[in-house]
Design a protein that fits this description.
This protein is an alpha/beta fold and about 260 residues long. The chain is built from 8 helices and 8 strands. It has a single domain, classed as Rossmann fold (3-Layer(aba) Sandwich), CATH 3.40.50.
Length: about 260
Amino acid sequence: MTYADWLREDRLPHIYCAGCGNGTVINCTLSAIDTMGWRKEETVFVSGIGCSSRAPGYIITDSLHTTHGRALAFATGIKLANPALHVVIFTGDGDLAAIGGNHFIHACRRNIDLTVVCMNNMIYGMTGGQGSPTTPTGALSTTTPYGSNEAAFDLCGLASAAGANYVARWTSYHVKELTHAVRAGLESPGFSFIEALVQCPTNYGRRNKFRQVIDQIEYFKSHALLVQKADRMREEGKEIPSDMFVIGELAKRNRPALGVQR
Ligand SMILES: Cc1ncc(C[n+]2csc(CCOP(=O)(O)OP(=O)(O)O)c2C)c(N)n1
Ligand code: SF4
């Protein structure tokens, strides 16, 4: 099989804009799932609302497209009702960290055996480009026309501090690494959180000096700092430049988890 065997081709063409990063993340996730040898009947995808949350609709397994911010609550119900199911959640930065922020924290704390793949485009894409909790300071959006004056959430830092067993961050440039991270998350018992920074050319890129899709992908490549290098810099007392972000496996631990089938 390949990732294509998991796609619901009768739902194509998809709704995504040309150059949207979400397709890359869907491909990486399905490729990782394909290597797990799971049957479609035992795999469920859950999402909230947003462009990112439309992903389960293109996948051939059972899925739940729920209400904005509530994917983790529905996913928790599914997993606790039937721990034999593999439950994977697709979400966006707005869905997960704004309206769904409380569910996110507590799902990490409970360490429920779920895998969350967050397509973080740093904006509300579906509703036309409002600022989200991950919009970088200074970035333009429809609700921050002079540049955001708020600090952005570090989603991985949040997941790790709240108790998730597995946490990793990659981008739409790091296709192989992202696929491996999703696979590691799927294998890890307890709550797994994989953040994928993605481009939204329609609502983020064009307002923030990424005139072409490739410009933002180049930015992801040139401003990503591997966690091992970041750790070395901290040990040497060097400051990590504020426009850089850390990528890699950011937490891997064995806290007791809920919903793991014994
Ligand atoms: C309760 C509720 N509030 C607000 C909305 C409007 N809404 C739909 S999608 C969305 C934001 C989506 O942003 P994100 O989760 O980052 O996903 P993206 O579209 O960027 O992938 C909002 C505010 C809604 N559908 N329901
Ligand atoms: S609005 Fe942005 S996130 Fe939504 S499909 Fe278009 S490019 Fe992708």
